[in-house]
Every structure is written in C-alpha cells, then in structure tokens.
C-alpha cells in the first residue's frame, strides 16, 4: 500500500515554478484585458468593470492575484490534494481526503460537459490568473504553473472548504494506514471556525424607511478580500470574495444583499457498511446483495528535506460515498452534497439577482449545503433560509449517528423542496438575526416553530451570541445603519453572567482557605459589568480564567462534544471551588510574570498584529494595536479569537473579517471594514490601512457608484499594466 519513491526536488530549480504560456494564449488574454478597467479607491479596494460577465471575472481574478496571489494558489493547491508537496508530510492526510472527495478527472469531465454559459465564466477565471502570471514573471508559484478552468469545480458546494472539512483526518489516517497519525494538519481550509452573524431590519424598524442589512462573517483573518465587480451585462456586486473564486460570497448588489452563516443543519450522513473480502477485492452488503467496493490508487507526493517522496494509498468508495473510517469490522462511508456545476452556478447567479423572487428561484438549485442565508432588498423585504440543501429522510431513524448502510430504509429520498425548508419572510417583529444558532429564535415571537419540521432539519442549539442579538434587537423601535453597527459591536458577554458570579461565590464560601491575594481580583470580578474593553481589568481576569476552566472541563470529558451554553454550564458545575480558585491564581501569576502586574486592561493582553507572511507568526517586539473585542464563545457579537503564539500577548487570527452595513434606499448607502487591509503585501500602503478602523469598529464609506469610485480613485488601469500594482 505504502510504496515510497524518491524524486529530486525541482521546485527550487525553477522547473516547477516557471510560467509557460504560448504567444497565442497571451495575445488572447491581452485582447480580453482591453475590455476590462480596474479602479482602485483610496483604500486600495478594486472596482472591476468589464463589457461582459466573463470580462469582469477575468479582471476580478487578475485583481485578486495582485493583492494576494499566494493565497489564491494555496486554496487550489489544497483543493488539488497537493499541499504536502509544498508543506511536507503533515499534510498527507489532508491531501488524501481531498483526493477521495474532489477528483480532478471528474472536474475535467464536468467542465467539458458544462453549459456554455458556465464554461465562459470558468475560462475567464483561469485566464485572469494566467494573464497575471504571464505579465508578472517575477512571481514564482509554489506549485501551479498554469490554472485550468476545471479547477474551480473542485469546490463541491461552490465554497472553499465546504463539507469535507467535517471528515476527521485522524480517523482517515487510522483506516488507511492502520495508525492514528499525530502532528497532522487537521483542518483542510480555514472556514467555520467561529461562525458568523447576519442581521436584517425591516423598513418599519429603520429610521431611513429602508431595509437595513448587516454582513458579519467570522472567518480566519485575510480569508477573503473586498471588491466590486461590474459588467455591462447587469452584474454590479460588492462584497467579499474568497481568494481564487469567481463570485462574491458575502455582499450586495443594487437590488438585494446576501449573508451566509454556518449551519448545523444535518446534510451529511455516515453509513455503516458490512464488508466482505474476496479474492478480487472488497464487497459490501446492500439489501441482501453483495456490491463491489470501488477502489482507486491515490499517489500523494510530499516534501521531505530537499526531495519529493511518494506514498500510495488505495481509496475505497461505496454508493454512499468515500470510506473514511471504521468501527471494528464495520467500514464507515460518508454521503454529502456533491454538485459543483450547480453550486458554482448558484453562487454566481445569486450575485445578479434583481430581488426576492429571482433570489428565491436561484435557491432552487439547492447546493448551498453548509450555510444559512440572511437576506434583504430594496423593496423592503427581509428573509432567512435555514440551509438550502436538505436530504429527505426517514424520520424514524436517528440521523445524528452512523446509520445502517445495508438497508434501503436509510437511503436519501430525494431533497426537500424550498417550500418545505425553514424560511422566514418579512416577520412581524421587523428583524431577523442568525448567529449560527437555532432558527427558532431568529425573529423573536415571529420565529418558526420547531414542531413543524423534522428534527434533522435544524439540530442547531442556541448560543450566547444568539441570546445577545435577540436582547438587543427586541426593544428596537427605530434604528439607523450606524446604530445597527454600534449594536453589533456591543461588548457585553452573556457567557459570563453565571460563570463570573460562580467564581466569586467559590471564593466567598471558602475565603479563609484561599490565598488572601485573591481577594482583590475577586472583587474586580464581583463589580465587573460583563463587558469587554481595552481598559477592562475584569475582562482580562474573566476571559483568561474562563479559558483555563474550559480546558479543564474538556480534559475531564474526553471525546465528548458540548455545545456553547452546555460547556459553560459544565465549567460551573463540574469544577470545584478549589479548581476555580486555582485557575484564577494561575492567571494572576501569569499576568504578573508576563506584564509585571495582574490588574491590566484587556487591551494590554489582546492585540492586533498582521503577520508579514501567510503563516501566523507574531512578535511581541513588533508594533501592535490594543483590541477590546473578545471571543464569540462568550457571546461577543464582534468576534475576535486570540491566543498566545509563544508570546506573552494574545494575537487575533479569527473573527470579524469583512464587515458591512447596507441601507437599501433608492440609492445604495453602505459602509464596510476589512481586517487589516486589502493587500497581502507588507510593502503596500493598503496592508494595514484599515487596521485602526477595524479594532475601533469605525467603518469606511463604500464607493458603489462609478462617479464616486472615480472621485476617490488612486489608480486606474487595464490588467497587464505593470505600473498598476496595488502598492
């Protein structure tokens, strides 16, 4: 199974990184570039204008490469299952997972048989990247010398990462190698780490009399960039694009806006396969018949020192899907949504929707499997869909666990139609919120009833962000866009409403036993208002102590998965008074050691610093900004996930990314902020030009209309002009 072959490494010799394009190709790309204009505004945000949709996409990808080619390439290296060639053996299992689910040969075939309307867009995607490489010979790709149109179809649900990130690499390694690997790269793509927030406010609750829309995805920082894409064919979308994709994933056009939040809707099933080994391979039982298990060799190359090694694994697949683990003699296969052609189509056409009816009709493609959708438009409609892809199943079966793969009763019975899905349209409360929590509180008393839907459709639990959002939105009578932003940055953390008093109580009941040094820190917690802030000492003590108690509870419950609120309850109930005081004492000692005193504001600990490379490397000696935001785990709506990186200070890597507020009047009014800045080049003035606004929650104006864009233009050019780089 694991035959290893050693090759000489060619990457560093220039053989792999050299761009090789024919003169015919370059001439065609140069001609297409003449139909594209890129205008960069005063924050370096590209506004791309093209004659056709394909021209606009050509320019869109070119501009993305200007701002972050390395991130574009790394997303496709990952999708191709070739990350180990760049980063070494720790990524072997990530690569095998990608090969099992994202087949390049199938992607090529899908592209060849795609509708012409989609093919021209996919061609433009590849051409835009390739023209960038052709006109920038100084750029040395890590692996991909030429991008092909079919590569975009490797993203099975239209989004980078998608559902396959749910497949455990540890389980995969144990099945295919017989050994549970350690030190592996467990995450395929940096997505769905902390979730997202989406708010929509009806005209009845808006001071402007227009629908208000708040876009707040929580991702790893720099996962998406900001841009506008316009064509003479009706495309005019503004928002955030995941590096290397041809559509804006979160954003708005002149008619409507769309915001996706990660969903726990049950769209993936694991099947227990009874396997029989025969002389000609493996078979599995289904309805009393023996069916041959598909097998395929996967050659995984990986970097080791100055050489490239190979390891070969035989991948297995039943009609349910790839085999990803086993339980004793039982093999486990995974079934999930896999329709990349419709997924890319749905994702792109969403950005051209001219209102609710067209947007809803586009949802009929049913391929947005991992996300919910919050919606608002210029007609005053606000809406919410909990998921989009939903298999129809036998409700008598517990789908939260692996199901019997030997019987037809566990087969999917088609997909639910949109009218059967959980949906909210224009609720009487006048507002909608989703913070990756249950849809049954999404619009207060106007929320749908759980009794009307199968349990598998919405197993999502409530969380502290959802509770926080409801409390803020329920009393609203009239609100402006700026006030909605302020509401969305409210620093209150409901997760500490019970935990902080429990820590105080633990001390009060045993004060004589505990170190008297703890009396003053306990009093700080006693008088703390549960709000995070740069100068808040209570935030520092509560967050750091809470993290230690969280780690303790997770250690006490190995292998147990607990929801947000459940975990905090366990921190209170399962830890003793001694545990709580020990955690607080450790925090006091840590702060005194690292900062010279324990009574320091949260902003002295919690910092923003943009790494100069794609890897998260931080340095206490480099300049950084204080941040008052906190982890969404505690209910902070403005999410900022930070931790130490062999440093004394904590640095953020995940949370608020591209954030925007949109007022859908006769003329679009919008503001936005992006983590750090538009460019990934440390030498660019747009590398951290938005950093202060980001940490302070002070948004910049969005220039949506061309006259405004031109008024604030810093550079105007066509792709290929060498003096137009975003620096």
Notes on the protein architecture:
- With 727 residues, the protein is of the alpha+beta class.
- The chain has a domain at 496-604.
- The chain has 19 helices and 29 strands.
- The strands form three sheets. The protein has a ten-stranded mixed β-sheet with strand order 20-18-17-9-8-7-6-3-2-29, covered by helices on one side.
- α12 crosses α16 (577-595).
- The two termini are 49 Å apart.
- The relative contact order is 0.13.
Strand order of the largest sheet: 20-18-17-9-8-7-6-3-2-29
Total helical segments: 19
Quote the beta fraction.
15-25%
In total, how many beta strands? 29
The description of the largest β-sheet is: 10 strands, mixed
Which residues form runs of ≥5 with pLDDT under 50?
Answer: 1-18, 187-193
Residues in helices, as a percent range: 25-40%
Q: N-to-C terminal Cα separation, in Å?
A: 49 Å
């Amino acid at each position: 199974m694991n035959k290893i072959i050693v090759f000489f490494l060619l990457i560093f010799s220039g053989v792999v990184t050299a761009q090789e394009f024919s003169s015919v190709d370059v001439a065609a790309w140069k001609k297409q570039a003449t139909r594209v204009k890129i205008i960069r505004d005063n924050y370096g945000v590209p506004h791309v204008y093209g004659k056709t949709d394909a021209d606009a996409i050509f320019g869109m990808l070119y501009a993305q490469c200007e701002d972050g080619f390395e991130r574009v390439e790394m997303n496709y290296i990952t999708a191709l299952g070739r990350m180990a060639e760049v980063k070494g053996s720790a990524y072997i299992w990530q690569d095998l997972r990608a090969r099992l689910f994202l087949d390049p040969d199938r992607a090529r075939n899908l592209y060849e048989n795609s509708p012409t309307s989609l093919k021209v867009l996919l061609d433009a995607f590849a051409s835009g990247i390739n023209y960038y490489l052709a006109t920038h010979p100084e750029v040395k790709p890590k692996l991909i010398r030429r991008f092909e149109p079919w590569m975009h179809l490797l993203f099975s649900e239209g989004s980078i990462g998608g559902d396959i990130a749910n497949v455990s690499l540890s389980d995969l390694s144990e099945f295919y190698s017989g050994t549970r690997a350690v030190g592996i790269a467990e995450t395929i793509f940096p997505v769905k780490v902390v979730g997202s927030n989406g708010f929509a406010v009806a005209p009845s609750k808006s001071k402007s009399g227009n629908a208000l829309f708040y876009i707040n995805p929580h991702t790893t920082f720099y996962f998406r960039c900001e841009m506008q894409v316009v064509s003479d064919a009706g495309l005019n979308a503004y928002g955030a694009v995941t590096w290397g994709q041809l559509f804006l994933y979160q954003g708005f056009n002149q008619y409507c806006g769309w915001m996706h939040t990660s969903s726990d809707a049950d769209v993936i099933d694991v099947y227990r396969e009874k396997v029989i080994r025969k002389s000609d391979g493996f078979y599995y039982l289904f309805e009393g018949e023996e069916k041959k298990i598909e097998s395929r060799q996967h050659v995984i190359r990986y970097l080791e020192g100055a050489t490239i090694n190979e390891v070969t694994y035989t991948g297995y697949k039943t009609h349910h899907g790839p085999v990803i683990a086993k339980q004793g003699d039982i093999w486990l296969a995974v079934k999930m949504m896999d329709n990349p052609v419709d997924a890319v189509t749905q994702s792109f056409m969403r950005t051209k929707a001219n209102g609710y009816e067209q947007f809803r009709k586009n949802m009929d493609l049913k391929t947005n499997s991992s996300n919910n959708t919050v919606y608002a438009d210029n007609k005053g409609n606000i809406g919410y869909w909990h998921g989009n892809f939903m298999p129809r199943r036998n409700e008598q079966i517990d789908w939260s666990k692996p199901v019997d793969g030997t019987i037809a009763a566990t087969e999917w019975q088609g997909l639910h139609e949109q009218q059967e899905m959980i949906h909210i349209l224009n609720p009487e409360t006048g507002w909608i919120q989703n913070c990756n929590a249950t849809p049954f509180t999404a619009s207060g008393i106007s929320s749908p009833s759980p009794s009307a839907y199968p349990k598998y459709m919405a197993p999502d639990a409530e969380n502290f962000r959802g509770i926080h959002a409801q409390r803020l939105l329920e009393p609203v009578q009239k609100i402006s866009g700026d006030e909605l932003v302020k509401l969305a940055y409210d620093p209150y953390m409901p997760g500490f409403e019970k935990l902080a008093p429990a820590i105080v109580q633990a001390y009060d009941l045993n004060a004589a036993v505990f170190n008297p040094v703890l009396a003053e820190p306990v009093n700080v917690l006693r008088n703390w208002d549960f709000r995070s802030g740069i100068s808040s000492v209570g935030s520092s003590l509560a967050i750091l102590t809470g993290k230690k108690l969280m780690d303790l509870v997770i250690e006490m419950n190995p292998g147990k998965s607990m929801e947000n609120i459940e975990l905090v309850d366990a921190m209170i109930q399962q830890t003793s008074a001694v545990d709580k005081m020990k955690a607080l004492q450790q925090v006091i000692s840590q702060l005194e050691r690292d900062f010279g005193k324990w009574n320091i504001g949260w902003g002295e600990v919690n910092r923003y610093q943009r790494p100069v490379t794609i890897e998260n490397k931080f340095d206490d000696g480099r300049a950084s900004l204080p941040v008052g935001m906190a982890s969404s785990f505690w209910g902070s709506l403005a999410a900022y996930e930070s931790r130490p990186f062999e440093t004394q200070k904590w640095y953020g890597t995940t949370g608020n990314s591209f954030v925007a507020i949109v007022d859908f009047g006769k003329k679009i009014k919008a503001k936005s902020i992006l983590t750090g800045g538009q460019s990934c080049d440390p030498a660019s003035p747009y590398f951290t030009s938005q950093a202060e606004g980001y940490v302070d929650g002070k948004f910049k104006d969005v220039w949506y209309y061309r006259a405004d864009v031109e008024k604030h233009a810093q550079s105007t050019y066509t792709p290929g002009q060498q003096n137009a780089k975003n620096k």
